[in-house]
Amino acid sequence: MSPDDELAPLPTAELHLHIEGTLEPELAVALAARNRVRLRFDGPEELRRAYRFSDLQSFLDLYYELMAVLQRPEDFTDLAEAYLRTAAAQGVRHAEVFVDPQAHLARGVPLEVVFEGLGEAFATAEERHGVSVALIPCFLRERDPAEAEELLPRLLRYRPLVIGIGLVSAETGRPPELFERVFARAADEGLHRVAHAGEEGPAEYVTAALDHLGIERVDHGIRSMEDPSVVARLRAEQVPLTVCPLSNVALRGVDRLADHPLKAMLDAGLAATVNSDDPAYFGGYLHDNVAAVTRALGLTLDERRRLAENSWRASFLPAAERDRHL
Ligand code: HPA
Ligand code: ZN
């Protein structure tokens, strides 16, 4: 087996992927032209040069700005379609995809446009790309929790495509407990619950998200490694963590891939998975992330198999379907 074969993609579930973060510069420019939206960038090359960040907020500013090109259902369909094509080539066989409804509502794009547009691509994804898809709308933590509570019933209409809720955006100063009520309601409705925690925020936000929001997976969670008691709990309860290595380097949470805690997480017995977060912005899709950490951290084929297996165990697929992949 050549080193390249060893690095061939393994069938994997992608569990941490923001659909708006798959907006490649070329598509952003094409959609801007189609919708007559003026961008402050002169073409895809200039835009690509702007995909450089100093922290999470500097990324979020551009990420929200570029959403302006997404106006009509077909824009969301084209965005999802482009992601599915690339993801399939990178070994993704199932994706639980995040979307930010409040970011679209705030700029006057109705929920129907977002969900019908995405739903169009997702309905045939299995048949055309061999990828099954579910959606997890995420609440923006900088906005009023009351707005999330009002939005929840409207999201329920998009079941069974919608399978859960998440919590995203800048963590600092916005502890998970603010969103306790909407997460409790979502649990009563039988929805799954996840939250970004311990990305830039401290390890105690991971504990708070588990205790107050009842989350079933931690998105990112890398700063858990700073607190041995949190690590011990994540290990004992086998709470899955959706780790996104290229994102952590791009947003300067980790200096270099060689310093990334992923291997330490595996060594500590945590249920870590590798995912792509916002691949158009951070330099790579799922297998690009796996290949990069494999090289930087010297992961073995067994460790890569463990990451793929963890992704299936951590997915929200019905048990019979999930077990087909194990
Ligand atoms: N972190 C927090 N919120 C986000 C991200 C992220 O990496 N991407 C899109 N929303
Ligand atoms: Zn994310």
Structure explained in plain terms:
It contains 18 helices and eight strands. It is an alpha/beta fold and 326 residues long. The protein has a single domain, classed as TIM Barrel. It has an eight-stranded parallel sheet, sandwiched between helices. The longest helix is centred in the N-terminal third of the chain and has 17 residues. The relative contact order is 0.14. The structure holds hypoxanthine and zinc ion. Zinc ion binds next to loops.
The CATH homologous superfamily corresponds to Metal-dependent hydrolases
CATH topology: TIM Barrel
Shape: globular
Whole-number total of structural domains: 1
| Largest β-sheet summary | 8 strands, parallel
Residue share in helix: 40-55%
Q: How many helical elements?
A: 18
Poorly predicted regions are none
- Please report which band the strand proportion falls in: under 5%, 5-15%, 15-25%, 25-35%, 35-45% or over 45%: 5-15%
Bound molecules: hypoxanthine, zinc ion
Report the mean per-residue pLDDT as an integer.
Answer: 97
Strand tally: 8
Structural class: alpha/beta
Q: Quote the distance from N terminus to C terminus.
A: 23 Å
State the name of the first-level CATH class: Alpha Beta
Function: Catalyzes the hydrolytic deamination of adenine to hypoxanthine. Plays an important role in the purine salvage pathway and in nitrogen catabolism.
GO molecular function: adenine deaminase activity; zinc ion binding
Catalytic activity: adenine + H2O + H(+) = hypoxanthine + NH4(+)
Protein name: Adenine deaminase
